[in-house]
Write a structure and sequence with these properties.
The complex is a heterotrimer of chains A (401), B (385) and C (263). By secondary structure, chain A is of the alpha/beta class. Chain A contains nine helices and 22 strands. Chain A folds into three domains: 3-57, Alpha-Beta Plaits, CATH 3.30.70.20; 74-256, 3-Layer(aba) Sandwich (Rossmann fold), CATH 3.40.50.620; 281-400, TPP-binding domain (Rossmann fold). Chain A is 25% helix and 27% strand. Chain A has a seven-stranded parallel β-sheet with strand order 11-15-10-5-8-9-16, sandwiched between helices. Chain A has a five-stranded parallel β-sheet with strand order 19-18-20-21-22. Chain A is flat, with a radius of gyration of 25 Å. Chain B has a four-stranded mixed β-sheet with strand order 1-4-5-8. In chain B, helix 1 runs parallel beside helix 4, helix 4 packs across helix 7 and helix 7 runs antiparallel to helix 8. Classes of the chains: A alpha/beta (401), B alpha+beta (385), C alpha/beta (263). Chains in contact: A-B, A-C, B-C. Strand 22 of chain A pairs parallel with strand 15 of chain C.
């Protein structure tokens, strides 16, 4: 374990590091900086010290792995729902392939379900060296405990060095249990991955503090290194007509599969469903929209664009539109091709939910609104005039074709 | 300014502020537009125990007084004067019971009021009896074990929404003001109905209705104090409640200044924020100074009442008259600072200006307050001689 | 019935400001609050307490000042509070946090339900709830948007679990851990009487020695993951500002978007 050292002889007590530390781990004690136990070794303080009084005492290199086994290979959890492999699996395979190639190792996909032979074979077209299939009627539906036991069993049997899963409702629910069972390191909701070839470490980047800063997380000595990855962040693996891998049928002890929870029914909630996560274009409204009835303007624009309608927390809290439309910190994270923010000032909690959109258009009457700082196109003016103009012009264009 | 609040007073202020910010702010414009009584917010204030801040612990209150009530009213008013008056009017309706009720009456009514399970209202004003309460025409006639009420009360805040009404009616018209008595009437009593909901200039989320009594029979136990003490009950009640109007006015004014300050810092004209212009700066300095003076006087009056002092009419009237004049002035200036935007309903200051106006009128017009103050002055001077 | 609610004290990130030069957080003056999603867990515990009768306890691991968050929970109506604080707990990742909480909860057994918020707004991992259930060896249901029924006789709970395309209704045996999403309820405000009770309530503090367990599994040293570095999110390039008459800027925008083949 490394630690931050502050060389008291060089410290000028200027306090730069104190205000920089995002964890509040440095304080001034008799005019010299001191690190307390809140420190997580993020090293943000190193670069700001004007007198170079701060250094990191590196941990010993080549520290042995905790349990002494050797681990190799990259795994992707092949999430499926109702027998269909989830979209995020193909994205993870694209990324997993890249990491595996860099490490010079193999890529496996682990599929749990029932009657999934052909789906498993299909996955081979996306760059898997092997698809490991556990086919059992009781695994058709997702159950936290049985999935935890089966996946843990396979990991202990084959010892992959990296295990990736989608940061989906399923992945975020049971993967933490797997990590505890194996005492593996787990990093949630990653937006970028890479490897440090020198130490064969997975570099996991994720937003922290509501997207205000990005953190890179490593798992120095525990294996496997596990991560859940946000859907729609990684590039989908390319289809190859000639698969090179094979499907391997795994049988696991029956007692691992007995579910502890029972699904009573499954409700496709289409009324409440606002498919923000899948939308290519989102038209979103905030406090400036001024009322529930005014959201009609946004729906009109969304209709000509084939877009979904989103909202800021202010609009949802005011009761103008249901919570399922909320984008941001406490709502959904979206990354459409085009995000049109109407009457949204751009509070940080909204920005973190949409700032990875490819193109952002902001319409706001206040030219100083923070939303303009992330916008590719900022339209300063009255949204009640601009939105209908956009709708009208787009309709006219459509008629021309 | 630090008014040296106790820990409990800070709790009351912070809780009222939190509810105002999180619950009232998002809906105040809509409530105003729709003239909708804010039941969900009343519910929320009830769950937070705020309806009991001025009531004794033995009746389920928190053991505070007039000052604690003022703190809550001010914070609510800072965001919405309409919601605040719906809250404060329940206290106005409860004061007669608190001040003049016997043990049974207090036990029966105060706990539900303290918990906010039931709202209270106070009914004095009539069509021909405004500033001149001597003109009251509603009568209460004793028949066996019951009083029979006949007449119509006008512009009663919380009318129709409240459950417990304290009503001033004449038991002996020949005695003039000494012939008035105070009664507790519950909603649902046969012969007790409500007139139409009034359409008002401001405080539009609050409910204002007529109370109509047609041979309304109430048990004689519902008489407060004694027959003939009705005016005394009304005057003492208003003495206790007027700092609450002061607090409402201070809150509205503070809310308007907050808006004006934010706007002045953001609005750029001639290449600079308008807050950098001395004309605007002096306006804001005067607004802030007036508000602080009004607050200091209101708090002092409330604390004086809570000390148990008897001669509270003058100082209570001063707090009301000064703070409400300040509120009218400050909100008008806030609209001026926001200019054209200030005049638009899109911004909250025009509502604040409309809300402020009533504070100069209700619970005794400011002209009547000045009469009260002047009479006290003359009386005090005469007594010293 | 006994319900345990796990909460975390977090900086109110809605107010967090970023230093434009260093791109780091300006922490001073940022108030600490109960993680907003945990307030839904508190509310749900209170609702079931009111419905079925239960003793409720709120638990947090954190620095000594996390006591404020516990008092806030008590002021909403939770009966008891317990704080886990020790220098040796500091720097814990989700594994070590869940481990530490699990030791405390084992000492608090028996219990019927554990409620957690879906995730904390500072870390956003959503991992501690499920990880805690695994440490305790009990089932969990994540993303609960409704609890239909708690049957103490049969020791079962029926809940609605939010999924990407709808929800699942599922039964679990008790004791179980549930992580809740904000659709589940609307948290109440604290009450004045609750605040007064919270002010006086004695909150026990447990450290590593009270919990037992392996010291090496606490805090930074017990954490498999480590922060290697932090950096500012990549800034977006300066955008183009369009001003003028609505029809004109609307036209210009459409042309720009078309030129880039966005629409």
């Amino acid at each position: 374990m490394g630690r931050i050292i502050i060389h008291q002889d060089r410290c000028s007590g200027c306090g730069e590091c104190v205000s920089t530390c995002p964890f509040g781990a440095i304080s001034l004690v008799s005019n010299r900086a001191q690190v307390n136990e809140q420190c997580v070794l993020c090293q943000a303080c190193l670069s700001v010290c004007p007198t170079e009084a701060i250094s990191l005492e590196e941990k010993k290199k080549d520290q042995p792995l905790v349990n002494g086994f050797s681990y190799e290979g990259v795994w992707v959890f092949g999430e499926q729902r109702q027998g269909i492999i989830s979209e995020v699996v193909y994205e993870l395979m694209g990324e997993g392939r890249r990491l595996a190639d860099k490490l010079g190792t193999h890529l496996w996909v682990i599929v749990l379900g029932s009657g999934l032979q052909s789906e498993a074979e299909h996955l081979l077209h996306y760059g898997a060296d092997r698809v490991c299939l556990v086919d059992h009627p009781d695994l058709a539906d997702f159950h936290d405990e049985s999935y935890t036991r089966v996946v843990s069993y396979l990991i202990e049997k084959y010892r992959p060095e990296i295990v990736l899963s989608g940061a989906t409702a399923i992945g975020r629910s049971f993967i933490p249990r797997v990590a505890v069972r194996l005492k593996a390191g787990l990093t949630a909701d990653c937006t970028a991955l890479d490897v440090d070839l020198d130490q064969r470490l997975l570099l996991q980047t994720r937003p922290a503090f509501g997207g205000n800063i990005m953190a890179t997380i490593i798992t120095p000595v525990h294996r496997p290194q596990m991560a859940t990855v946000r859907p729609k962040v990684m590039k989908k693996a390319a289809y190859s007509p000639l698969p090179k891998g094979r499907v391997q049928i795994e049988t696991v002890p029956e007692d691992l599969i007995v579910p502890q929870t029972r699904i009573v029914s499954l409700v496709k909630d289409l009324t409440e469903r606002v498919n923000l996560a899948d939308a290519d274009i989102i038209v979103a409204g905030g406090r400036g929209v001024g009322g529930a009835e005014n959201f009609k303007l946004l729906y009109d624009l969304a209709n000509v664009l084939g877009a979904a309608v989103g909202a800021s927390r202010a609009a949802v809290d005011a009761g103008w539109i249901p919570y399922s439309h909320q984008v941001g910190q406490t709502g959904k994270t979206v990354c459409p091709k085009l995000y049109i923010a109407c009457g949204i000032s751009g509070a940080i909690q909204h920005l973190v939910g949409m700032q990875s959109s490819e193109t952002i258009v902001a319409i706001n009457k206040d030219s100083q609104a923070p939303i303009f700082s992330v916008a590719d196109y900022g339209l300063v003016g009255n949204l009640f005039e601009i939105i209908p103009s956009l709708t009208k012009k787009l309709q006219e264009e459509r008629l021309k074709f | 300014m630090d008014y040296f609040l106790t820990e409990e007073q800070i709790m009351i202020r912070d809780l009222a502020r939190k509810i105002a910010q999180e619950k009232i702010l998002p809906v105040r414009a809509e409530l105003d537009e729709r003239e909708e009584f804010p039941w969900p917010i009343i519910q929320c204030l009830a769950e937070a125990d705020l309806f009991g801040v001025y009531l004794p612990e033995e009746y389920g209150g928190c053991g505070g007084g007039c000052f604690e009530l003022c703190l809550a009213v001010e914070e609510l008013s800072r965001v919405c004067g309409g919601v605040a008056v719906s809250y404060a009017a329940s206290a106005l309706g409860a004061f007669p019971i608190l001040l003049f009720g016997n043990a049974q009456q207090k036990e029966r009514y105060l706990p539900e009021i303290a918990q906010g399970k039931k709202l209270a209202a106070f009914a004095l004003t009539e069509a021909n009896a405004g500033s001149d309460a001597g003109g009251i025409q509603t009568t209460a006639r004793l028949e066996g074990d019951e009083y029979v009420l006949n007449g119509t009360k006008q512009w009663i805040t919380n009318g129709g929404e409240a459950h417990i009404y304290t009503v001033i009616a004449m038991t002996d018209r020949s005695k003039g003001s000494r012939g008035a008595s105070a009664f507790i009437v519950e909603k649902g009593t046969p012969g007790f109905s409500f007139g139409k909901k009034e359409k008002k200039m401001g405080i539009r989320s609050s409910a204002t209705r007529e109370l109509v009594f047609t041979d309304c029979r109430i048990p004689k136990e519902n008489l407060l104090a004694k027959e003939g003490m009705g005016f005394m009950v009304a005057m003492k009640t208003l003495d206790n409640s007027r700092p609450g109007i002061g607090a409402q006015a201070v809150g509205i004014a503070q809310g308007a200044l907050d808006e004006a300050l934010d706007y002045a810092r953001e609005r750029v004209q001639f290449g600079k924020p308008i807050s950098s212009f001395q004309a605007i700066q002096h306006m804001m300095a005067d607004m802030a100074t007036q508000i602080e003076a009004a607050r200091a006087l209101t708090y002092a009056a409330a604390r004086y009442i809570d000390s148990g002092a008897k001669d509270v009419s003058k100082v209570s009237a001063m707090a009301k008259v000064f703070a409400s004049d300040v509120a009218m002035n400050v909100t008008t200036q806030a609209v001026q600072i926001l200019g054209g935007y200030g005049y638009m309903r899109e911004y909250p200051v025009e509502k604040m200006m409309r809300d402020a106006k009533i504070t100069q009128i209700y619970e005794g017009t400011n002209q009547i307050q000045r009469n009260v103050i002047a009479l006290s002055l003359i009386k005090e001077r005469a007594q010293k001689r | 019935m006994k319900i345990i609610v796990c909460i975390k004290q977090v900086p109110e990130t809605g107010n967090v400001k970023i230093d434009p030069q260093t791109h780091t957080l300006i922490r001073s003056g940022v108030p600490s609050i109960i993680n907003p999603l945990d307030t839904y867990a508190i509310e749900e515990a209170l609702r079931w307490k009111e419905k079925l009768g239960a003793s409720t306890l709120v638990l947090s691991m954190g620095p000594p000042q996390a006591e404020e968050a516990l008092r806030e929970a008590v002021s909403m109506g939770i009966d008891q509070a317990l704080l886990l604080t020790d220098r040796r707990f500091a720097g814990a990742d989700t594994y070590a946090t869940a481990y530490t909480l699990s030791l405390a909860i084992r000492k608090l057994a028996p219990y019927d339900l554990i409620f957690c918020g879906k995730q904390a707004i500072d870390g956003d991992t959503a991992q501690v709830g499920p990880a805690l259930a695994e440490h305790l060896g009990i089932p969990h249901i994540a993303y609960v948007k409704k609890i239909e029924d708690i049957d103490l006789q049969k020791a079962t709970v029926r809940a609605h679990r939010l999924m990407e395309d709808g929800y699942e209704i599922l039964d679990s045996r008790l004791p179980a851990l549930l992580t809740v999403v904000k659709e589940i309820n609307e948290p109440r405000f604290p009450s004045l009487k609750g605040k007064m009770r919270a002010k006086k309530l004695e909150i026990p503090i447990w450290g590593a020695d009270d919990l037992g367990g392996e010291v090496a599994n606490f805090g930074l040293s017990g954490s498999p993951t480590q922060v290697k570095g932090i950096f500012a999110p990549p800034a977006r390039g300066k955008g183009e500002i369009l001003t003028g008459e609505a029809p004109l800027i609307a036209q210009t925008l459409i042309e720009r978007l078309k030129a880039q083949k966005i629409i």
